[in-house]
Specification:
single chain, alpha+beta, 7-stranded antiparallel sheet, two-stranded antiparallel ribbon, 3 helices, 9 strands, about 25% helix, globular
Length: about 210
């Protein structure tokens, strides 16, 4: 027969054994390291509202996904691919698409112009009234520039005019906007829009001067 002292000792040892087993279970659940902290339960992935990748150092070209958007008019429909998740802020002949955060944008002007793309580049450069405007390039019907917005800080714009008659006139303007660190992604978005642009050929010419 065990004495009361022996019974108390056995109860203490049993409690220590249960504690060791319980501690071992926690280690397995937390991936084998009891000192690893998790802000979220393991296995849960936070949903994202857009496929647009943002790695903290600017809009990245790789990983962007695109979807066809239709705009223009019933008589002159136009379409092009824009990044998935970017929502239309306005439609018609001058549609604008914004990413969910409002940092990046893509804008079209399908009204066209009887001026050449190079002339429109010079006109746009003269018309921009922004702080610390710096033109980076103005080649082949494309204007690339940076400036400082009073509320959003440093910004970058890339505007390109598309010609269907060997540079004599412009059919569509495409502009992308973001931050200077987004340049690679902005160029990718612009090129995708250019490559997938579908513009009808109308017999009449009612483009503005």
């Amino acid at each position: 027969m065990l004495t009361p002292r022996h019974q108390a000792l056995l109860m203490t040892l049993a409690g220590m054994t249960v504690g060791v087993v319980a501690f071992g279970t926690v280690v397995v659940v937390n991936g084998g390291n009891p000192f690893t902290a998790h802000d979220e339960p393991v296995g849960i992935v936070s949903p994202t509202s857009s496929s647009t990748p943002n790695r903290g150092n600017g809009l990245q070209a790789d990983g962007l996904q695109y979807v066809v958007q239709n705009f223009g008019t019933d008589q002159d429909p136009v379409s092009a691919e824009v990044p998935t998740g970017w929502k239309s802020a306005q439609s018609g002949t001058r549609p604008k698409f914004l990413d969910p955060t409002g940092v990046w944008q893509l804008r079209f002007d399908t009204r066209g112009s009887k001026q050449s793309p190079d002339e429109l580049v010079r006109n746009r450069e003269r018309s921009i009234d922004e702080k610390d405007l710096k033109v980076l390039s103005r080649d082949n019907g494309m204007l690339v520039y940076t400036y400082v917005d009073k509320t959003r800080g440093p910004r970058m714009g890339l505007s390109r005019w598309i010609s269907l008659d060997d540079g004599k006139t412009a059919a569509v303007e495409i502009t992308v906007g973001g931050r200077p660190q987004d340049e690679a992604g902005l160029r990718a978005v612009l090129q995708q829009a250019v490559d997938t642009l579908k513009v009808p050929v109308s017999p009449g010419d009612n483009r503005p001067n």
